[in-house]
Amino acid sequence: MEKILVTTDQSTNSKAAIRFAIQLAKQRKAELIILHIYHNIKPFSWSERTFEEYEDTFIKKITAELTEFIADIYHDIHESEIQHQLVMVSNLDVVEGIMEYAIKHNCAYICISTRGAGTFTKILGTHTSKLIRSSATPVLCIPSAYHLAELKHILYASDMTDYENELKKVVAFARPIHASVEMMHISYPYEFAFDKDLMEATLQKKTAYKVSLLNPKRDITNVLLEDIDDAIKVSKPSLLVLFTHQSRSMFERLLFPSNAEEYSFYGKIPLLTFNKQEDK
């Protein structure tokens, strides 16, 4: 059975990812794993036995709190509890703990809530951005203010350098939930204009899935973020997909715009990222 991993620190912000993960696991008929990373430091004056007793008490306390925390989320979204595991793992580095668990237990996706919306400067250096850069497991970033909605339409932003292999992963995500897929390529004036109907027919043949094409033109008076934002307003996706091994012109400029432009759609829709390490 497919496994979906969602992280929580018991904060209000983390509820968005758990709500999303519950819905996704239900749609994909997957097992849900709810992971809490913690780390306790042993005081020098404590014996090993004293510290072990403290750890046991701590784990029981946090487990009880998390159980209630998760039950409240199910109640809030009016869902009966699906099959899930509540797991606690000790690791000094939260991101390393998440990634190691995901790989060891063959999780298909990691869900994590973002702590803010608007600008990427708010998340640079956070657990979310570190996971995006480093995780071999695909990462679903759920804005903390996101209102739960059915995943109906997926927008995949491509620089066209490896779109055939990337589309296979996008379709693998979309197919079980019966979501439509749209591939977006923002083209520059010097790029060759391809035939939309022919391209869509080719994509459907290669993926055995209907894929529509969105090909807006690059407005060089805008930063790339503004062009992407404009395209998202046209497409109205439920989720945006990016690949971190795309060229500097796409993902890196999206994450690290020189003037920290507002990532306006970031606070509105979930983001699914695939990391280049996945292919190593």
Automatic annotation (TrEMBL):
InterPro entries: Universal_stress_UspA, UspA. Residues 2-143 form the UspA domain. Belongs to the universal stress protein A family. This is Nucleotide-binding universal stress UspA family protein.
